[in-house]
# Entry
Amino acid sequence: MKFAIIAAGEGSRLAQEGVKLPKPLVTLNGEPLIQRLVRIFNSCGAEEIVIIVNTLHPQTEQFVRQMMEQRGADEAPIRLCVRSTPSSMHSFFELSEHLEGSSFCLTTIDTVFREAEFAQYIDDFRYSDVDGMMAITDYIDDEKPLFVATDSSFNITGFLDASSSCPYISGGIYCLRPVALNTLRRCMAEGQSRMRNFQRGLIEDGLRLKARLFSKILDVDHADDILKAEQFLSECD
# Structure
């Protein structure tokens, strides 16, 4: 199983709030976000880790290349794509050629979660027969959350921009089979540019999607999110 990280955003909100490091290099309790994800993916048995970073912050590329050079013998190889893209879905598309033929887990750089929950999520997906398994949470601290509607068995029935009755939102972590890349290509051909529209496209194309509930998933979008994330991870220890 492969793992992929979208780390090509500009991180403009963090920069505007005085955070000098590019988002992938922001540290949580001393560990850069990108290094944390790579470590966790290796602990989950990754066969390869595919990462996209932008051209605006060469220090991020340098950091990833250093990780590639210092990779241990028991760690997954890292494949790096350096490209600036207009959206997360465009970044996903740039990575997609390296994900063909394999099940994979895709996440944005700033997802923060309990490692034990993530490991169980990966195992649940590996041994399932679904086309996709999406991480969800009922912890809502997002400016524009994507609500995930499910039935009583946690089969996903819809992705909603707003909901007064749905308690769950997307956590920005997606486990998918290779068939999902057909939907990605269709969405790109139609001029779609948002990951939430890709997710809706999966349902439109008849893929079987399951939701996996996490107790909490945080995004690091603002400067004060760093402290929130550090406190959350300290509670997880």
Q: What stands out?
A: The chain has one domain: 2-236. The chain has a mean pLDDT of 94. The first helix runs from residue 12 to 16. Helices lie at 12-16, 33-43, 58-69, 88-96, 115-126, 180-189, 195-204, 223-236.
